[in-house]
Design goal:
alpha/beta, 359 residues, D-Maltodextrin-Binding Protein, domain 2, three-stranded parallel β-sheet, 2 domains, six-stranded mixed β-sheet, 15 helices
């Protein structure tokens, strides 16, 4: 959930606490506005230590800064976790110290995605280094008064190329190129991963993105939270599932769809740097256990609108009518993928995206 008052209130809250609170501090480095404000307030009121949130705008932002400051916990995405492991930055998770959640509590579709990483040609066991926090998909948020679900289902990602539609493309190199690659593979019957594109694949994806540009298409990010409330500015917007869930709760004319041609599934998880030791390590495991406990995961997910990794929490939130299954429940399908750490490919994607934006 992206409430624009949240970041300011969190800063004020932290400043006030720092001025009058002598408790030990656990510094948590995480994406902007990615924890329930009331949820965190409740923890800080009742804990023997306090949690200070330091935010980053993107995984790339985090990766560029994480070495210059000391954080006790970090919440990155899957591919960024893989990069941090490759740089020997993280310690392994001692699951016996995560007292409120076992691996068996994780949602079955989430476990399918995790197992796929382990079974891949370059095997990576994310649970060896991380405790899942939230997860989700990239899809299409659309105004049902302007475009029908049947049209969205029929066109999939190609709806973004319709010149008679007002479109918001999410300004993200990875996600933008993922969409273009998935559509290119589908149209040309190519069985290849977005993590292993050829040079020709990248050129074709870049051209697809350049071709969709026009006066009806805007490349934006968090502006979606203003522009997809009632009245909506766009007919359809590329967005993350958790943001879609929040906006659909605010505007009942919205719906969400993940094209069947495939998408990116992301897993955001809590990791512990090797620099976290002693009392800080004890606090780190205590806070991870607090986040992971069923009732707390329910409260945090309900407030933030992002999907819990716990299968029982997902079931409860849907059963209680907090959010609808169609948007809240993440389904990992055979043609969905997770990004993998690949420094060379990342550079190529960013360079191509810059050309798309400049075209």
């Amino acid at each position: 959930m992206k409430k624009f008052t949240f970041a300011l209130s969190m800063i004020v809250f932290a400043v006030v606490l720092a001025a009058c609170d002598n408790r030990p501090v656990l510094k948590v480095y995480m994406p902007t506005e990615y924890i329930g404000e009331d949820f965190l307030d409740e923890f800080n009121k009742n804990s023997d230590y306090r949690v200070d949130i330091i935010v980053f705008d993107s995984n790339e932002d985090m990766l560029g800064k994480v070495g210059s400051s000391t954080y006790d916990l970090i919440i990155p995405s899957d591919y960024a976790i893989e990069e941090l492991v490759s740089k020997d930055f993280l310690q392994e998770i001692d699951w016996t110290r995560v007292t409120t959640m076992a691996k068996s509590d994780l949602d079955s579709d989430l476990m399918r995605a995790i197992d796929l990483l382990k079974e891949d040609e370059v095997s990576f066991d994310i649970l060896k280094y991380a405790v899942p926090y939230f997860w989700g998909s990239v899809g299409l948020l659309f105004d049902t008064t302007k475009i029908t679900r049947s049209e969205i289902e029929s066109l999939g990602w190609n709806v973004l190329t319709q010149k008679n539609r007002q479109v918001m493309m999410y300004d993200s190199a990875r996600d933008g190129m993922m969409i273009a690659l998935k559509q290119y593979y589908y149209e040309n019957n190519i069985d290849r991963s977005i993590n292993n594109p050829t040079d020709n694949d990248l050129k074709a994806a870049e051209q697809w993105l350049i071709n969709l540009k026009g006066s009806n298409v805007e490349f934006k990010t968090d502006e979606v939270f203003d522009n997809m409330l009632n009245p909506t500015k766009y007919d359809v917007a590329v967005t993350y599932s958790g943001d879609a869930v929040y906006l659909m709760d605010e505007n009942d004319k919205l719906d969400y769809f993940v094209p069947t041609t495939g998408s990116n599934i992301f897993i955001d998880a809590v990791v512990i740097p090797k620099t976290t030791t002693g009392e800080k390590l004890d606090m780190a495991y205590d806070f991870i256990s607090y986040l992971s406990k069923g009732e707390n995961a329910y409260a945090n997910s309900s407030e933030s609108a992002y999907t819990s990794p716990r299968g029982d929490v997902i079931t409860q939130i849907i059963a209680n009518g907090v959010y609808p299954a169609s948007s809240y429940k993440v389904v990992f399908r055979d043609n969905d993928e997770l990004f993998r750490y690949n420094a060379t490919l990342s550079t190529s994607i960013v360079t191509a995206w810059q050309r798309v934006l400049a075209a």
